[in-house]
Prior knowledge:
The chain is mainly α.
Amino acid sequence: MRRSPVDLRAADEQDLLRRVAREDRAAFEEFYRRTSPWLVLRLRRRCADEQIVAEVLQETYLSVWRGAGAFVGATAGGWLWTIAARRLVDAFRREGRNTQAPTMGEEVAPPAEDLALADALSGDVGEALSSLAPELRQVLRAMVLDGLSVRETSVLLGIPEGTVKTRARRARLAMREAMS
């Protein structure tokens, strides 16, 4: 099934995925065109190795092409990121290496994700989140926003599982304290 580019430009990402599930190549190309720049940036925030980023990107979109029929009830971006984050964890396991999150000295400006999250969460929740230490925000971002398990978060951030659990607990306590 081939639709005109005009139809695809007007379609939202969820509709594009439904079309991809019906093997619409033009819809897949449009979905890739819209989402790949964002996804590459997000992957690069978690991995400095361009080869791994390229491989994960390719594996992610191959999974989208093959599994678009499984997309239901979520946002397209969230679904896409879940696939990509898991592929990145798999790549780290294959490579047998850990990543190091940027230290506070290396980070010149707050990550775009933190800024977007702060804009989306106003009031007490936004303030509480912004008051967290960067390492606590990283764990919350991976586990809550990206939907990763403790083990996947551990591999992604290059820290032991026990540290992930401790930071998640500290983040919850700090959020609770800041909001009371």
